[in-house]
Amino acid sequence: xxQIVINGVNQLSGEVEIEGAKNAVLPILASTILASxxxxxxxxxxxxxxxxxxxxxLEEFNIKIEFNQVQKTISVDASGELTSIAPKELVEKMRAxxxxxxxxxxxxxxxxxxxxxGCAIGxxxxxxxxxxxxxxxxxxxxxxxxxxxxxxxxxxxxIYLDFPSVGATQNxxxxxxxxxxxxxxxxxxxxxxxxxxxxxxxxxxxxxxxAGTDSLKIKGVDQLHGCDHSVVQDRIEAGTYMIAAAVSNGxxxxxxxxxxxxxxxxxKLAEMGVxxxxxxxxxxxIGPKVLAPADVQTLPHPGFPTDMQAQMTVAQLKxxxxxxxxxTVFENRFMHLDExxxxxxxxxxxxxxxxxxxxxDFQGAEVSATDLRAAAALVIAGLIAxxxxxxxxxEYMDRGYYHLVSKFKQLGANIKRVRIDxxxxxxLVTDDQVISEESLA
Length: 441
Ligand code: EPU
Fold this sequence. Notes:
This protein is of the alpha/beta class. It is about 30% helix and about 25% strand.
């Protein structure tokens, strides 16, 4: 078993560098399936467990991958004869692998992808992905735990998404690039990761306009080719360090952070009394001695991101007064509150609405991560807790935070990662020793 061990109370200061976005690189890797000629070279790729899993999924289809983890570059050659079956073992490890469905059926006319189940944060259906693909002329058959998609030739269509799902937007947009004729998709997701994917597809020869708005227009083309691309910065990793600085009365420069991508978070932090200085170097966060309470509601972009919800609740619990959090995107994303309770937090949850009773005098405790962002929230709480905090289930952390321990150490935190053997002996694990090839869906 591995744990992150933090001794508080820490006040963060210094600078932190942010990786390329996990949630951008996963669909971009899936999009390389569409490039029937040439090689795609990606730069700024974070060496995270989810990226390793997506690479394995692509290798199943006979795609050649070279990942240079030191340079953080991946080169992908999908020009050979591809196969079209994504096995259960891999899809089970990472539900985001469902975004291979659209590109596979568009390129090969066939795809068989294991049905991704729900996960800790919600039931996570994929009905919108499937309805959109059907509109493009794909026949969907669900049997034996698999989704089988077939099509002779995809055709353009007018599609309206009932909800601006990130994954559905990505799957349908990728499939429509090779459809005959024009496709319009309305009420699409507007996240920066969608824009990054559209940029890659256009570099591959696709004709997509409207990315970043609520309507995408796609003119189908006959084929796509490889391209070079540098992955957009991870706004959620950046936001995580912003909150850590804010709650620790810290002073931290988040290098090259893109203000616009974190606007909803930064505006809430400012409301709570945090100083936000934007410059050419990035965004500097200066946390106040006492945070003011705030009411927050998660929404699709450009609303407050659900992926910052758990971390934000730590700031709200620390704040001097009562705050509320309304989680409208996922139905079950408050598990971290039970763990924070072990550290002294007091709260009430009714459905998707949490009332958070600040101010909390956080105390160190043994806590378990329940999903990726919960893991980040527990580390942030540990940083400002008195005494020792131990966070376990780091496999969640490793899905989305590269070199988290060294980054917090560099900001002055008393933090380490240890491995504990059966006899209870502890050995230190450096970030470079973390082998992040296993993951949970
Ligand atoms: N939904 C449906 N039907 C669908 C698709 C989605 O009902 O066909 C519902 C979901 O059940 C959920 C909501 O719509 O309640 C939002 O789901 P969405 O499809 O937008 O999310 P996703 O594509 O599955 C991505 C990120 C998540 C992030 C969400 C929302 C990736 C790989 N994952 O998931 O990231 O929370 O968008 O922004 O891009 C994380 O990084 O910690 C993470 C969970």
